[in-house]
Amino acid sequence: MILIDEPLMFAFVAFWIIWMVIFKTPPGQWLIRLCEGPLMTFARYIDFHVMKLAAFFVWVSTNPVAAMRIKGKEVKLKVEQPSITPEKAVEYERDLEEIHKMQPQREPMVRLNIGTALLLILVFIALYLLSMFIGRWLAP
């Protein structure tokens, strides 16, 4: 079984060897530029989306019923968007404002507490175990 760091390690070694063969110098400056540029951009992108997912879990956990109503109305609005009239749009907007009032307002979170992180970890572990169980169950 290949771990996640093994392909990265092999790619780094291959990059280093190819660079040495072509340019005959160690790739110090280019490697630093790669790490500061595209790799940091990718890391920030992943961090932003993971934090957004965690914030969504926190938002849903404050009032799950209102959160599901809001998301349901948003999905319904996106599905009906091509055939929606301006009157219906105003009506949906009013309904969403009423439901948003039921959702508690809090300051935007910069950091998530340890409970949220543990919840996310446990959810992903449960999904992994469930997929492994179903995979073995369906296999002959």
Structural description of this entry:
With 140 residues, the protein is mostly helical. 81% of the residues lie in helices and 0% in strands. The chain contains five helices and no strands. The chain has helices at residues 5-23, 28-62, 64-80, 86-102, 114-138. The protein is elongated and about 70 Å long.
Indicate the topology.
Blueprint: H1 5-23, H2 28-62, H3 64-80, H4 86-102, H5 114-138
Helix pairs in contact: 2-3, 3-4
What is the end-to-end distance?
21 Å
* Strand-residue proportion: under 5%
Reading the helices and strands in chain order gives: HHHHH
- Radius of gyration (CA) equals 24 Å
How helical, in percent, are the residues? over 70%
Query: Could you tell me the mean pLDDT?
Result: 77
